[in-house]
Amino acid sequence: MRNVYEYKTAQGIRYYVRYIKPDGSRGNKRGFTRKRDAAAFLASVKVDIDRHEYIDPRSGDIRVGELGTAWIAEKQVLLKASTFHSVESAWRTHVSPRWSRVRVADVRHGDIRAWVAELAAERSASTVLRAHGVLSGILDVAVRDRRIPANPALGVPMPRKRMKRRVYLSHAQVSALAQESRFPELVYFLAYTGLRWGEATALRIRHIDLNRQRVFVEENAVRVSGKTVVGTPKTHVTRTVPIPPFLMPYFDAVATVRGEESLVFGDGTAHLILPNSKDGWFAAAVRRCQRSDARFPRVTPHDLRHTTASLAISSGANVKAVQRMLGHASAAMTLDTYADLFEDDLDAVSLSLEAARQKASAGEGWRKNVPLLSHEVPRPHDEGPAIP
Q1: Contact by Cβ (8 Å): 8, 15
Q2: Average pLDDT over residues 61-87
Q3: Confidence at residue 343, expressed as pLDDT on a 0 to 100 scale
Q4: What is the pTM of this model?
Q5: Rounded CA separation 5/270 (Å)
Q6: Nearest to 104 by CA among 58, 161, 162, 69
Q7: Are the C-beta atoms of residues 176 and 188 closer than 8 Å to each other?
Q8: Separation between Cα atoms, residue 105 and residue 319, nearest integer Å
Q9: What tens digit of pLDDT does each residue of 102-114 get?
Protein backbone atom coordinates (compact mmCIF):
# COMPACT_ATOMS: atom_id res chain seq x y z
CA MET A 1 0.00 0.00 0.00
CA ARG A 2 1.41 3.34 -1.07
CA ASN A 3 -0.63 6.53 -0.58
CA VAL A 4 -0.36 10.27 -0.07
CA TYR A 5 -2.55 11.85 2.61
CA GLU A 6 -3.22 15.39 3.69
CA TYR A 7 -3.56 16.72 7.21
CA LYS A 8 -4.13 20.12 8.81
CA THR A 9 -1.62 22.05 10.87
CA ALA A 10 -1.50 25.55 12.32
CA GLN A 11 0.60 26.54 9.32
CA GLY A 12 -1.85 25.09 6.80
CA ILE A 13 -2.38 21.89 4.84
CA ARG A 14 0.46 19.39 4.87
CA TYR A 15 0.93 15.98 3.25
CA TYR A 16 2.38 12.71 4.40
CA VAL A 17 3.28 9.48 2.67
CA ARG A 18 2.68 5.89 3.71
CA TYR A 19 4.40 2.92 2.09
CA ILE A 20 5.38 -0.66 2.79
CA LYS A 21 9.08 -1.32 3.40
CA PRO A 22 10.88 -4.34 1.96
CA ASP A 23 10.66 -6.09 5.36
CA GLY A 24 6.86 -5.71 5.38
CA SER A 25 6.72 -2.97 7.99
CA ARG A 26 5.02 0.37 7.35
CA GLY A 27 7.02 3.49 6.58
CA ASN A 28 5.90 7.09 6.46
CA LYS A 29 7.20 10.60 5.99
CA ARG A 30 5.40 13.79 6.98
CA GLY A 31 5.73 17.51 6.44
CA PHE A 32 5.38 17.97 2.68
CA THR A 33 3.88 21.39 1.83
CA ARG A 34 2.92 20.33 -1.69
CA LYS A 35 1.13 17.17 -2.73
CA ARG A 36 3.31 16.76 -5.80
CA ASP A 37 6.43 16.76 -3.60
CA ALA A 38 4.94 13.99 -1.51
CA ALA A 39 4.07 12.07 -4.66
CA ALA A 40 7.58 12.52 -6.03
CA PHE A 41 9.05 11.21 -2.78
CA LEU A 42 6.73 8.22 -2.89
CA ALA A 43 7.78 7.49 -6.47
CA SER A 44 11.47 7.63 -5.54
CA VAL A 45 10.87 5.22 -2.66
CA LYS A 46 9.14 2.81 -5.04
CA VAL A 47 12.09 2.95 -7.44
CA ASP A 48 14.59 2.33 -4.63
CA ILE A 49 12.58 -0.62 -3.34
CA ASP A 50 12.26 -2.13 -6.83
CA ARG A 51 16.04 -1.76 -7.34
CA HIS A 52 16.80 -3.16 -3.89
CA GLU A 53 18.44 0.16 -3.02
CA TYR A 54 16.02 1.31 -0.34
CA ILE A 55 17.58 2.66 2.85
CA ASP A 56 15.42 2.93 5.93
CA PRO A 57 15.84 6.48 7.33
CA ARG A 58 15.86 5.08 10.86
CA SER A 59 18.97 3.03 10.08
CA GLY A 60 20.98 6.24 10.07
CA ASP A 61 20.07 7.00 13.67
CA ILE A 62 23.02 4.97 14.97
CA ARG A 63 25.92 7.06 16.31
CA VAL A 64 29.38 7.08 14.77
CA GLY A 65 30.76 6.09 18.16
CA GLU A 66 28.79 2.84 18.24
CA LEU A 67 29.95 1.85 14.77
CA GLY A 68 33.47 3.04 15.55
CA THR A 69 33.79 0.87 18.64
CA ALA A 70 32.86 -2.22 16.63
CA TRP A 71 35.15 -1.20 13.78
CA ILE A 72 38.13 -0.76 16.11
CA ALA A 73 37.48 -4.15 17.75
CA GLU A 74 37.52 -5.78 14.31
CA LYS A 75 40.77 -4.05 13.36
CA GLN A 76 42.45 -5.30 16.52
CA VAL A 77 42.06 -8.84 15.20
CA LEU A 78 43.01 -8.08 11.60
CA LEU A 79 45.92 -5.63 11.92
CA LYS A 80 49.46 -6.08 13.13
CA ALA A 81 50.01 -4.80 16.66
CA SER A 82 52.04 -1.74 15.63
CA THR A 83 49.55 -0.74 12.92
CA PHE A 84 46.58 -1.23 15.22
CA HIS A 85 48.24 0.94 17.85
CA SER A 86 48.41 3.83 15.35
CA VAL A 87 44.84 3.32 14.17
CA GLU A 88 43.41 3.04 17.69
CA SER A 89 45.31 6.15 18.76
CA ALA A 90 43.91 8.11 15.80
CA TRP A 91 40.38 7.01 16.70
CA ARG A 92 40.74 7.82 20.39
CA THR A 93 42.58 11.13 19.95
CA HIS A 94 41.10 12.73 16.83
CA VAL A 95 38.02 10.92 15.51
CA SER A 96 36.02 9.92 18.57
CA PRO A 97 36.01 13.34 20.31
CA ARG A 98 34.56 15.01 17.21
CA TRP A 99 32.26 12.37 15.74
CA SER A 100 31.21 9.80 18.36
CA ARG A 101 27.94 11.55 19.28
CA VAL A 102 26.93 12.32 15.69
CA ARG A 103 24.29 10.22 13.91
CA VAL A 104 25.78 8.65 10.79
CA ALA A 105 22.89 10.12 8.79
CA ASP A 106 23.93 13.59 9.96
CA VAL A 107 27.58 13.37 8.90
CA ARG A 108 28.07 15.86 6.08
CA HIS A 109 30.84 16.15 3.53
CA GLY A 110 31.31 19.84 4.33
CA ASP A 111 31.69 19.13 8.05
CA ILE A 112 34.38 16.55 7.33
CA ARG A 113 36.22 19.03 5.10
CA ALA A 114 36.21 21.59 7.90
CA TRP A 115 37.44 19.00 10.41
CA VAL A 116 40.27 17.90 8.12
CA ALA A 117 41.32 21.51 7.52
CA GLU A 118 41.34 22.16 11.27
CA LEU A 119 43.48 19.07 11.90
CA ALA A 120 45.86 19.93 9.07
CA ALA A 121 46.54 23.33 10.62
CA GLU A 122 47.95 21.71 13.75
CA ARG A 123 48.98 18.16 12.87
CA SER A 124 51.25 16.45 10.37
CA ALA A 125 49.92 15.17 7.06
CA SER A 126 50.44 11.58 8.24
CA THR A 127 48.27 12.18 11.31
CA VAL A 128 45.51 13.82 9.25
CA LEU A 129 45.52 11.05 6.65
CA ARG A 130 45.32 8.38 9.33
CA ALA A 131 42.46 10.09 11.19
CA HIS A 132 40.50 10.65 7.98
CA GLY A 133 41.11 7.03 7.00
CA VAL A 134 39.61 5.82 10.27
CA LEU A 135 36.46 7.92 9.86
CA SER A 136 36.12 6.94 6.21
CA GLY A 137 36.49 3.26 7.10
CA ILE A 138 33.71 3.50 9.69
CA LEU A 139 31.42 5.26 7.23
CA ASP A 140 32.19 2.58 4.62
CA VAL A 141 30.68 0.07 7.02
CA ALA A 142 27.59 2.28 7.35
CA VAL A 143 27.22 2.31 3.56
CA ARG A 144 27.58 -1.47 3.28
CA ASP A 145 25.05 -1.93 6.08
CA ARG A 146 22.66 0.30 4.12
CA ARG A 147 22.50 2.93 6.82
CA ILE A 148 23.53 5.77 4.49
CA PRO A 149 23.50 5.93 0.67
CA ALA A 150 27.11 7.10 0.21
CA ASN A 151 30.29 7.79 2.16
CA PRO A 152 30.51 11.57 2.83
CA ALA A 153 34.23 11.28 3.59
CA LEU A 154 35.07 10.52 -0.04
CA GLY A 155 36.55 13.34 -2.11
CA VAL A 156 37.74 15.41 0.84
CA PRO A 157 40.93 17.35 -0.08
CA MET A 158 43.82 15.98 1.94
CA PRO A 159 47.24 17.45 2.81
CA ARG A 160 50.19 15.99 0.95
CA LYS A 161 52.92 14.17 2.76
CA ARG A 162 56.33 15.68 2.22
CA MET A 163 58.77 13.06 1.11
CA LYS A 164 61.85 13.18 3.27
CA ARG A 165 65.08 13.24 1.31
CA ARG A 166 66.74 9.84 1.60
CA VAL A 167 70.29 9.51 2.83
CA TYR A 168 72.65 6.88 1.45
CA LEU A 169 76.02 5.87 2.87
CA SER A 170 79.03 4.76 0.87
CA HIS A 171 80.95 1.57 1.64
CA ALA A 172 83.57 3.59 3.51
CA GLN A 173 80.94 5.43 5.54
CA VAL A 174 79.24 2.17 6.51
CA SER A 175 82.58 0.84 7.77
CA ALA A 176 83.24 4.02 9.73
CA LEU A 177 79.81 3.88 11.34
CA ALA A 178 80.16 0.21 12.23
CA GLN A 179 83.55 0.77 13.86
CA GLU A 180 82.07 3.51 16.05
CA SER A 181 79.00 1.47 17.01
CA ARG A 182 78.19 -0.66 20.00
CA PHE A 183 76.94 -3.43 17.70
CA PRO A 184 79.16 -3.27 14.58
CA GLU A 185 77.94 -6.59 13.13
CA LEU A 186 74.35 -5.39 13.28
CA VAL A 187 75.23 -2.14 11.50
CA TYR A 188 77.00 -4.06 8.73
CA PHE A 189 74.13 -6.53 8.49
CA LEU A 190 71.49 -3.81 8.16
CA ALA A 191 73.50 -1.93 5.54
CA TYR A 192 74.20 -4.99 3.37
CA THR A 193 70.92 -6.92 3.63
CA GLY A 194 68.24 -4.22 3.77
CA LEU A 195 66.35 -5.85 6.63
CA ARG A 196 64.18 -3.61 8.76
CA TRP A 197 65.27 -3.10 12.36
CA GLY A 198 62.53 -5.35 13.71
CA GLU A 199 63.29 -8.09 11.19
CA ALA A 200 67.00 -8.12 11.99
CA THR A 201 66.60 -8.03 15.76
CA ALA A 202 64.00 -10.84 15.59
CA LEU A 203 66.36 -13.25 13.81
CA ARG A 204 67.01 -16.47 15.69
CA ILE A 205 69.68 -19.11 15.22
CA ARG A 206 67.13 -21.41 13.60
CA HIS A 207 66.65 -18.80 10.88
CA ILE A 208 70.26 -19.20 9.70
CA ASP A 209 71.33 -21.57 6.91
CA LEU A 210 75.12 -21.61 7.27
CA ASN A 211 75.65 -23.85 4.25
CA ARG A 212 73.78 -21.58 1.87
CA GLN A 213 74.81 -18.40 3.71
CA ARG A 214 71.20 -17.30 4.00
CA VAL A 215 68.83 -16.04 6.67
CA PHE A 216 65.08 -16.65 6.61
CA VAL A 217 63.09 -13.55 7.50
CA GLU A 218 60.03 -14.96 9.26
CA GLU A 219 59.55 -12.73 12.31
CA ASN A 220 59.43 -9.04 13.11
CA ALA A 221 59.84 -7.49 16.57
CA VAL A 222 58.26 -4.08 17.24
CA ARG A 223 57.73 -1.99 20.35
CA VAL A 224 54.10 -1.23 21.14
CA SER A 225 53.25 0.72 24.29
CA GLY A 226 56.59 -0.12 25.84
CA LYS A 227 56.42 -3.85 25.10
CA THR A 228 58.09 -5.92 22.40
CA VAL A 229 55.58 -7.68 20.18
CA VAL A 230 56.78 -10.38 17.79
CA GLY A 231 54.80 -11.07 14.65
CA THR A 232 55.24 -11.65 10.93
CA PRO A 233 57.21 -9.31 8.64
CA LYS A 234 55.59 -6.09 7.47
CA THR A 235 54.05 -7.60 4.35
CA HIS A 236 53.21 -10.93 6.10
CA VAL A 237 55.48 -12.60 3.51
CA THR A 238 58.63 -14.47 4.51
CA ARG A 239 61.74 -14.17 2.40
CA THR A 240 65.32 -15.40 2.12
CA VAL A 241 68.22 -12.93 2.24
CA PRO A 242 71.94 -13.65 1.62
CA ILE A 243 74.42 -13.09 4.43
CA PRO A 244 77.40 -10.92 3.39
CA PRO A 245 80.40 -13.30 3.24
CA PHE A 246 82.53 -11.05 5.46
CA LEU A 247 79.94 -11.48 8.25
CA MET A 248 79.92 -15.29 8.10
CA PRO A 249 82.55 -15.64 10.90
CA TYR A 250 80.16 -13.84 13.26
CA PHE A 251 77.19 -16.01 12.27
CA ASP A 252 79.32 -19.16 12.54
CA ALA A 253 80.39 -18.14 16.02
CA VAL A 254 76.93 -17.31 17.41
CA ALA A 255 75.43 -20.45 15.85
CA THR A 256 78.06 -22.52 17.64
CA VAL A 257 77.49 -21.15 21.14
CA ARG A 258 73.75 -20.39 21.12
CA GLY A 259 70.65 -22.56 20.94
CA GLU A 260 68.24 -22.57 18.04
CA GLU A 261 65.75 -20.28 19.77
CA SER A 262 68.40 -17.73 20.77
CA LEU A 263 68.47 -14.38 19.03
CA VAL A 264 71.31 -13.67 16.63
CA PHE A 265 72.03 -10.11 17.79
CA GLY A 266 72.41 -8.78 21.30
CA ASP A 267 72.70 -11.10 24.27
CA GLY A 268 70.68 -13.80 22.57
CA THR A 269 67.73 -13.47 24.95
CA ALA A 270 66.26 -9.96 24.81
CA HIS A 271 65.32 -8.24 21.58
CA LEU A 272 67.45 -5.18 20.93
CA ILE A 273 65.36 -2.03 21.27
CA LEU A 274 65.57 0.62 18.56
CA PRO A 275 68.03 3.17 20.00
CA ASN A 276 66.81 6.63 20.85
CA SER A 277 67.19 9.01 17.91
CA LYS A 278 68.92 11.66 20.05
CA ASP A 279 70.97 10.03 22.78
CA GLY A 280 71.01 6.33 21.83
CA TRP A 281 74.13 4.39 20.89
CA PHE A 282 73.43 4.70 17.14
CA ALA A 283 73.09 8.48 17.23
CA ALA A 284 76.26 8.69 19.34
CA ALA A 285 78.16 6.67 16.72
CA VAL A 286 76.90 9.01 13.98
CA ARG A 287 78.11 12.04 15.94
CA ARG A 288 81.56 10.51 16.35
CA CYS A 289 81.71 9.89 12.59
CA GLN A 290 80.68 13.49 11.95
CA ARG A 291 83.48 14.76 14.18
CA SER A 292 85.93 12.81 12.03
CA ASP A 293 84.25 13.72 8.75
CA ALA A 294 82.21 16.91 8.48
CA ARG A 295 80.49 15.55 5.35
CA PHE A 296 79.17 12.45 7.14
CA PRO A 297 75.36 12.63 6.91
CA ARG A 298 72.92 12.34 9.77
CA VAL A 299 71.39 8.87 9.43
CA THR A 300 69.01 6.59 11.28
CA PRO A 301 68.99 2.79 11.45
CA HIS A 302 66.27 2.75 8.77
CA ASP A 303 68.55 4.74 6.45
CA LEU A 304 70.78 1.66 6.34
CA ARG A 305 67.95 -0.10 4.50
CA HIS A 306 68.05 2.66 1.89
CA THR A 307 71.83 2.29 1.80
CA THR A 308 71.41 -1.37 0.86
CA ALA A 309 69.32 -0.39 -2.14
CA SER A 310 71.83 2.27 -3.16
CA LEU A 311 74.87 0.01 -2.90
CA ALA A 312 73.11 -2.85 -4.68
CA ILE A 313 71.83 -0.74 -7.56
CA SER A 314 75.17 1.07 -8.00
CA SER A 315 76.88 -2.33 -8.21
CA GLY A 316 74.60 -3.31 -11.09
CA ALA A 317 72.30 -5.67 -9.20
CA ASN A 318 69.11 -6.76 -10.93
CA VAL A 319 66.10 -4.73 -9.77
CA LYS A 320 64.10 -7.94 -9.26
CA ALA A 321 66.80 -9.27 -6.94
CA VAL A 322 66.83 -6.00 -4.99
CA GLN A 323 63.04 -6.18 -4.69
CA ARG A 324 63.19 -9.70 -3.25
CA MET A 325 65.94 -8.79 -0.82
CA LEU A 326 64.08 -5.73 0.48
CA GLY A 327 60.76 -7.56 0.65
CA HIS A 328 58.87 -5.17 -1.63
CA ALA A 329 55.61 -6.35 -3.14
CA SER A 330 56.85 -5.78 -6.69
CA ALA A 331 59.82 -4.54 -8.71
CA ALA A 332 57.68 -1.55 -9.67
CA MET A 333 57.47 -0.59 -6.01
CA THR A 334 61.26 -0.78 -5.74
CA LEU A 335 61.66 1.41 -8.81
CA ASP A 336 59.13 3.94 -7.51
CA THR A 337 60.65 4.02 -4.03
CA TYR A 338 64.21 4.48 -5.23
CA ALA A 339 63.63 6.38 -8.46
CA ASP A 340 66.33 8.88 -7.45
CA LEU A 341 68.94 6.12 -7.62
CA PHE A 342 68.33 5.70 -11.33
CA GLU A 343 69.13 9.26 -12.38
CA ASP A 344 72.39 8.10 -13.94
CA ASP A 345 70.40 5.71 -16.13
CA LEU A 346 68.83 8.74 -17.83
CA ASP A 347 72.26 9.89 -18.90
CA ALA A 348 73.01 6.38 -20.14
CA VAL A 349 69.82 6.37 -22.22
CA SER A 350 70.71 9.74 -23.73
CA LEU A 351 74.21 8.60 -24.61
CA SER A 352 72.89 5.37 -26.12
CA LEU A 353 70.43 7.28 -28.28
CA GLU A 354 73.16 9.63 -29.42
CA ALA A 355 75.43 6.71 -30.34
CA ALA A 356 72.59 5.08 -32.27
CA ARG A 357 71.89 8.35 -34.07
CA GLN A 358 75.50 8.78 -35.10
CA LYS A 359 75.68 5.18 -36.31
CA ALA A 360 72.50 5.61 -38.34
CA SER A 361 73.62 8.94 -39.76
CA ALA A 362 76.69 7.24 -41.21
CA GLY A 363 74.37 5.21 -43.43
CA GLU A 364 73.94 6.27 -47.05
CA GLY A 365 71.17 8.76 -47.67
CA TRP A 366 69.98 8.98 -44.06
CA ARG A 367 71.01 12.61 -43.71
CA LYS A 368 68.93 13.63 -46.73
CA ASN A 369 65.66 12.64 -45.07
CA VAL A 370 66.24 14.33 -41.73
CA PRO A 371 65.04 17.91 -41.23
CA LEU A 372 67.78 20.34 -40.30
CA LEU A 373 67.94 21.72 -36.80
CA SER A 374 67.03 25.37 -36.45
CA HIS A 375 70.63 26.48 -35.90
CA GLU A 376 71.69 24.59 -39.03
CA VAL A 377 69.33 26.43 -41.39
CA PRO A 378 71.51 28.55 -43.76
CA ARG A 379 70.66 32.26 -43.86
CA PRO A 380 70.58 34.04 -47.27
CA HIS A 381 73.57 36.34 -47.83
CA ASP A 382 71.28 39.27 -48.57
CA GLU A 383 69.18 38.80 -45.44
CA GLY A 384 69.28 41.83 -43.24
CA PRO A 385 69.32 41.91 -39.51
CA ALA A 386 66.34 40.36 -37.77
CA ILE A 387 63.55 42.80 -37.06
CA PRO A 388 62.72 42.78 -33.37
Answers
A1: no
A2: 93
A3: 63
A4: 0.69
A5: 76
A6: 58
A7: no
A8: 49
A9: 999 999 999 999 9
